[in-house]
Design brief:
Elements (H helix, E strand, L loop, with lengths): L2 H44 L93 E4 L5 E4 L14 H13 L4 H12 L5 H13 L2 H12 L5 E10 L2 E9 L4 E6 L4 H7 L8 E4 L12 E4 L1 H14 L5 H21 L7 H21 L17 H11 L1 H4 L1 H4 L8 H17 L5 H19 L4 H9 L14
Parallel strand pairs: 3-6, 6-7
Antiparallel strand pairs: 1-2, 3-4, 4-5
């Protein structure tokens, strides 16, 4: 055989080997990518409200078993020793007195002649619904003092129709639908059954809308008062099905006031529409949502309760990794040390504590980086290198170390963002009961009312009294707001 023939065979074999090598390399890259995808999908499947930021409503029927991060207190359940109990109290003196005579005295003609005394008194506190109808008559007179000029009386402010509902009916309708999260239809059914008044659903909607419009000024004052706060405020956002789409309620609050708005956007656009963060210069506590970092001129504190849930998720998805448990223990220990210092009357922690915890924090995350290396990019592939969930969380903890640890350095900064979550919870209850807001205008009205109701409750004013004050044109009396220039 000629030499060229064998050279050709060798060349063909080399080409075939190169083709197989290239194919093997592509398959290896594909296997690596698919392995990462399967791991990420498994992590997503294991996510729930217990180990991530997902809301409990997303758990469906497969709800996780509750696991508290608190340590057992070893106390017996119920009231503790020396606890000052509270019992049922009479609201006022009895309106009706009923004597319970012995059966033998009921038919005795001489019962009133016998000596008697009260052995024991018992009280029944009951509730009656009374429908009251007021008639306003406009009087017209011929005034002899002014040359027989006709003078006509004026109806009180608010009496504008021949027949209309009073503030008592309006207060009950608003309390049921907005404060009590009862649907419009069921509010109609309840009021009709209890009072005998067949109030239409349209009238109930109108009552709520007019009530919300009357709160516009006081809610604006709440916003301005929160802007001037020197203490940190809590921020959160939550979805609300509205008019067939998803809108977002944005919450800003502290221990005294609550300000809520609604927008079609969740991120920085919706936050700009709320008209708070662009003007605020203090410290906000939040769940590390990326949009909060886009605002300049303010300080950030990250909610550690959210981080603990995410670390729990990493523990469950990657039981072989030990760093999540270490940093969870570290954060809880920092919290305990701070609480103990506050109990001892301290306003800040020593350099020793701050340095010790800082070193341990860095050590934990160094282990996290080593245990979760970044996969190298395939040749010619664009974009950033792929990171797993654990590495993404570790990088976030490294990047925002100062914001995560701020609660430890400044005692006025809380450990978590529970204040905002509590303030926004009634929105989720309303959505769960009613299913959605039928109009965006109705959702805006509800945000106004929740701002007012929540702020009034924080001031020690019960919701029904706050509604009555607003209907009487005095909503500011239910919300104490510092004077603003």
């Amino acid at each position: 055989m000629p030499i060229n023939f064998y050279e050709q065979i060798i060349k063909n074999q080399n080409d075939h080997i190169a083709s197989l090598t290239n194919q093997l390399q592509q398959q290896s890259e594909q296997i690596r990518a698919l392995t990462l995808m399967v791991a990420e999908l498994n992590e997503r499947l294991k996510k729930n409200s217990h180990n991530s930021s997902k809301p409990p409503s997303s758990d469906g029927l497969n709800k996780p078993k509750p696991r508290s991060l608190r340590e057992p207190s070893k106390k017996k359940p119920g009231a503790q020793k020396n606890h000052k109990g509270t019992g049922l109290k009479l609201p006022h003196k009895p309106d009706e007195l009923i004597d319970c005579e012995p059966d033998e005295c009921l038919s005795c003609p001489n019962a009133q002649l016998c000596a008697s005394k009260v052995k024991e008194s018992r009280y029944e506190i009951d509730l009656e619904t009374i429908v009251k109808v007021r008639q306003y008559r406009q009087i017209m007179r011929t005034c002899k003092e002014h040359l027989n000029v006709l003078v006509v009386g004026k109806f009180p402010a608010g009496i504008s129709a021949t027949k209309q509902y009073g503030n008592g009916v309006k207060a009950m309708a608003v309390a049921l639908t907005s404060a009590g999260a009862v649907s419009i239809q069921r509010t109609h059914d309840l009021l009709s059954a209890v009072s005998g008044l067949s109030i239409s659903t349209g009238s109930i909607c109108k009552m709520n809308h007019e009530f919300a419009l009357g709160l516009t000024d006081v809610v604006e004052k709440i916003r301005l008062a929160l802007l001037q706060k020197s203490t940190p405020v809590h921020c959160d956002e939550s979805g609300a099905r509205t008019a067939g789409s998803l809108a977002w309620v944005h919450n800003v609050s502290d221990a005294d006031l609550t300000y809520q708005t609604i927008s079609w956007k969740r991120g920085s656009i919706g936050m700009h529409e709320a008209n708070f963060l662009p003007e605020y210069t203090g410290t906000i506590v939040h769940d590390c949502w990326a949009s909060y970092w886009k605002f300049d001129g303010l300080k950030h504190a990250v909610c550690c309760a959210h981080l603990l849930r995410e670390l729990t998720g990493i523990e469950e998805s990657h039981p072989e990794q030990k760093w999540p448990a270490r940093i969870k223990q570290l954060l809880l220990h920092m919290k305990k040390v701070k609480e103990r210092a506050i109990e001892n009357g301290k306003s800040e922690l020593s350099y020793y504590h701050q340095h010790t915890f800082s070193v341990e924090y860095d050590s934990c995350l160094q282990v996290a980086v080593e245990e979760n290396p970044i996969e190298p990019k395939a040749p010619g592939k664009r974009g950033r290198p792929k990171k797993n969930m654990a590495r993404r969380l570790a990088d976030r903890l490294i990047a925002y170390k100062e914001e995560v640890s701020l609660f430890f350095k400044r005692f006025e900064i809380p450990f978590d963002n529970n204040q905002a979550e509590r303030d926004i919870r009634m929105l989720k209850v309303k959505i769960k009961v009613s299913g959605c807001f039928r109009t965006f205008e109705g959702a805006k009205d509800y945000a106004l009312m929740r701002s007012y109701f929540s702020s009034a409750k924080k001031q020690g004013i019960n919701v029904y009294h706050a509604i009555q004050l607003a209907l009487d044109g005095m909503p500011e009396n239910a919300v104490w707001i510092e004077a603003t220039e």
